[in-house]
Amino acid sequence: MQTSVAPILRKSYSSAGQDTQGIMVFGERPMDISRKTLSTLFEQLGLDNDAASIDAFIRTHVPLDTAGPIWAEAFWSASQAAFLKEALEEDADWAESVDLLSELLHKA
């Protein structure tokens, strides 16, 4: 006999609050469930994240001089480089967006 997890999920989520930015709150700890995109990655890095700004950033830095990791490039601040490195090393939620940015910057 197969058991459904739907009642458990409903119960688990019934006490959760969600704000307008995609943050689920379970008790005291927020859980970020927002979609990670190139735009939200740029926002996380403290960069302008509108389409024109992203395009300009990529055009300015393409192609990268090295085949090394994206986080090792000289144009990142120390905190930006640390964030990118951690995202990739820990295969974090941001890894897919960081990989996309890396691919865009390595195109010739």
Structural commentary:
Helices cover 47% and strands 9% of the residues. The model is unreliable at 1-21 (pLDDT under 50). With 108 residues, it is mainly alpha-helical. It is globular. Strands 1-2-3 form a three-stranded antiparallel beta sheet, with no helix packed on it.
Write the topology of this structure:
Blueprint: H1 6-14, E1 17-18, E2 23-26, E3 29-32, H2 38-44, H3 51-61, H4 78-89, H5 95-106
The beta-strand count equals 3
Q: Pairing-aware structural class of the strands and helices?
A: mainly alpha
Terminus-to-terminus distance:
56 Å
Strand order of the largest sheet: 1-2-3
Contiguous uncertain segments of 5+ residues: 1-21
Amount of helix:
40-55%
The helix/strand order is: HEEEHHHH
The helix count comes to 5
The biggest sheet, with number of strands, parallel, antiparallel or mixed sense and barrel status, is: 3 strands, antiparallel
Please tell me what the overall shape is: globular
Mean pLDDT: 75
Strand-residue fraction? Answer: 5-15%
Radius of gyration: 18 Å
Structure described in brief:
With 108 residues, the protein is mainly α.
Structure characteristics:
5 helices, 108 residues, 3-stranded antiparallel beta sheet, disordered N terminus, mainly alpha, single chain, 9% strand
